[in-house]
Amino acid sequence: MKLKDRIAIVTGGGTGIGAGITEHLAAEGARVVIAQRRVDLAQAQAEKLRQRGAVAMTVRCDMGKHADIKRLVAATLRKFGRIDIVVNNAGLTGASALWSFLGQGKEHVDQVIDVNLKGPMLLAQEAARTMVKAKRKGVVINISSVAQFGAQEGASAYCASKAGLDGFCKTAALELAKHGIRVVNVAPGDTDVPAHHDIKGILKRAGVSGLYFKRTPRGRRGSADEIAAVVAFLASDDAAFVTGCTWLVDGGWMTY
After folding, report:
1. What is the reported pLDDT for 249?
2. Rounded to an integer, what distance in angstroms lies between the CA atom of residue 245 and that of residue 216?
3. 30 near 8, Cβ under 8 Å?
4. 212 belongs to the catalytic site
5. What does pLDDT average to over the chain?
6. Would you call 23 helix, strand, or coil by DSSP?
């Protein structure tokens, strides 16, 4: 119970990697706020956690809308009085993020950058302000991607958004260190979640050539549980000296 009674916001916490994260944080004693654009998915995950004895609430939130982000923070403060952990997990990925560089329009670029980069930055800012005001330590964990480091065909806006998380993470960590607030990125590799189960089919239908596919040295795809275990560690005091960096959880994908 390394996170007993800590208040954790997890965006996109109702599905995929996010669901694994909420389960791990709750198992360590955290009280979880699941923020999701589709609130029905968040409610289903929250009920699952409650059946296990956890404390969980849901808030509808579109990470591309600053008003929704401010409402999320306000709702969390009304319910729990503080914020200790923020996990910026929600993002446009998979089929929704794939578009050829020459074919994508401004609307697509705006949407990906708004949800994947601006949203996490604004939520971290809003939450950090409450931590500083309350003189409480805290941690912000951004779920990035190996796309932060390596190009992916058909995903220029997506790769740019994840690379942007690197600069955000380092700079925010630098400025917030004096307040006892840590900022860390977690970069998953190829992870088998329901939305990406047919990842090769998704890429093929999007027109990706397949010429630049890499193999994971571990010889298999990762799981949401494996990503979540690292997030739970980084959220705990066991990682008190970890900030301003990215943890790769990729089965060795970025070794070559």
Report:
1. 98
2. 22
3. yes
4. no
5. 96
6. helix
The owner of tokens 């806006």 is 157
CA distance 8 to 27: 12
Q: d(Cα 67, Cα 100) in Å, to the nearest integer?
A: 31
Q: Rounded mean pLDDT of 161-184?
A: 98
**First-to-last C-alpha distance (Å) of the chain:** 37
Residue type, 65: K
Q: What pLDDT score does 204 carry?
A: 87
Report which of residues 18 and 202 the model is more confident about.
18
The beta strands (E) that lie in 144-203 are given as 181-188
Rounded-to-integer distance, Cα 181 and Cα 138, Å: 5
Question: What is the radius of gyration, based on Cα positions, of the chain?
Answer: 17
The enclosing H or E element of 31 equals: strand 31-36
Inter-CA distances, 28 with 7, 88, 228, Å = 12, 19, 12
* Dist. CA 128–CA 67, nearest whole Å: 17
Which amino acid, residue 69?
I
Taking the CB of residue 40, how many other CB atoms lie within 10 A of it? 11
Catalytic annotation, pick one of 26, 36, 75, 158: 158
Say whether pLDDT at 210 is over 90: no
Task: Round to whole Å and give the CA distance between 73 and 70.
Answer: 5
Query: Cα 121 vs. chain centroid, distance in angstroms?
Result: 12
Q: In what side-by-side order are the strands of the sheet with 138-143?
A: 56-60, 31-36, 7-11, 85-88, 138-143, 181-188, 245-249
Q: What are phi and psi of 146, to 5 degrees?
A: -60, -15
